[in-house]
UniProtKB/TrEMBL annotation:
<comment type="pathway">
    <text>Pyrimidine metabolism.</text>
</comment>
<dbReference type="InterPro" id="IPR027417">
    <property type="entry name" value="P-loop_NTPase"/>
</dbReference>
<feature type="binding site">
    <location>
        <position position="193"/>
    </location>
    <ligand>
        <name>substrate</name>
    </ligand>
</feature>
<dbReference type="GO" id="GO:0042802">
    <property type="term" value="F:identical protein binding"/>
</dbReference>
<keyword id="KW-0418">Kinase</keyword>
<dbReference type="InterPro" id="IPR001267">
    <property type="entry name" value="Thymidine_kinase"/>
</dbReference>
<dbReference type="GO" id="GO:0006950">
    <property type="term" value="P:response to stress"/>
</dbReference>
<dbReference type="GO" id="GO:0005524">
    <property type="term" value="F:ATP binding"/>
</dbReference>
<keyword id="KW-0547">Nucleotide-binding</keyword>
<dbReference type="GO" id="GO:0046872">
    <property type="term" value="F:metal ion binding"/>
</dbReference>
<comment type="pathway">
    <text>Purine metabolism.</text>
</comment>
<protein>
    <recommendedName>
        <fullName>Thymidine kinase</fullName>
        <ecNumber>2.7.1.21</ecNumber>
    </recommendedName>
</protein>
<keyword id="KW-0862">Zinc</keyword>
<comment type="similarity">
    <text>Belongs to the thymidine kinase family.</text>
</comment>
<keyword id="KW-0237">DNA synthesis</keyword>
<dbReference type="GO" id="GO:0004797">
    <property type="term" value="F:thymidine kinase activity"/>
</dbReference>
<keyword id="KW-0479">Metal-binding</keyword>
Length: 232
């Protein structure tokens, strides 16, 4: 009887070990714009590829700044990718057989994928893939952007990168929007955004608010003058 129980126990444990061996990993890279997130992602993907692992890169179809079918860093490094409107469609478009042989999936500009959490759960916990995610952790107002922060509890590692403040050269943790647009999703580069330290982020917000108030005041005065002229 004891021998029988031991046999069952060992078989059960061996089955658990096999199941554990099939799960994957998730690594998250976050930070402000111009912090080198895409560069770090490409470095990891190329390293995995050099080890003989099958890799694939995904980016949002919304990001067409540098190339449609490539992930491109700000300094021009490129890597071919799948540009998709969502992550759920990746396995179907990539092909089931090819997906089964895939070891590593890189996701750039992850903040634009609403289905990021569900995709990572399935790819890592059920399909045994290693997923490396790069994206903004906050928007220009320092609020959570997309689902990037939602996958932190799923992650094996989290890397927070910083840039260099364009105004003083100190470490930059935040992204300052230069323009007056207020929508959360506004794709752009150095013409729209700059990395800044905390002090210059706060100063920049004050300056922008003051400029906005001046512009609004000018509009009100212009409208009032137009109404008076019309009446006269």
């Amino acid at each position: 009887m004891t021998s029988f129980r031991s046999s069952i126990s060992l078989t059960s444990i061996d089955g658990q070990h096999k199941a554990l061996a099939e799960v994957g990993e998730i690594h998250v890279i976050v930070g402000p714009m111009f912090a080198g997130k895409t560069t770090a992602l490409l470095r990891r993907i190329k390293s995995e590829s050099s080890k003989g692992r099958n890799v694939a890169m995904i980016k949002s179809a919304k990001d067409t700044r540098y190339a449609k079918d490539s992930v491109v860093t700000h300094d021009g490094l490129k890597f071919p990718c799948w540009a998709l409107p969502d992550l759920t469609s990746f396995q179907h478009k990539f092909g089931d057989d090819a997906y089964q042989k895939l070891d590593v999936i890189g996701i750039d500009e992850a903040q634009f994928f609403e289905d990021l959490y569900d995709f990572c759960c399935k790819a890592v916990d059920h399909d045994g893939k290693t997923v490396i995610v790069a994206g903004l952790d906050g928007d220009y107002l320092r609020r959570s952007f997309g689902s990037v922060l939602d996958i932190i509890p799923l992650a094996d590692t989290v890397t927070k990168l910083t840039a260099r403040c364009e105004l003083c050269g100190k470490r930059a943790f935040f992204t300052l929007r230069k323009t007056a647009e207020t929508q959360t999703e506004l794709i752009g580069g150095a013409d729209v955004y700059m990395p800044v330290c905390r002090q210059h982020y706060m100063n920049g917000q004050v300056v922008k608010e003051a400029a906005r108030n001046v512009l609004e005041s000018c509009k009100v005065q212009a409208n009032s003058h137009s109404e008076i002229t019309t009446v006269v």
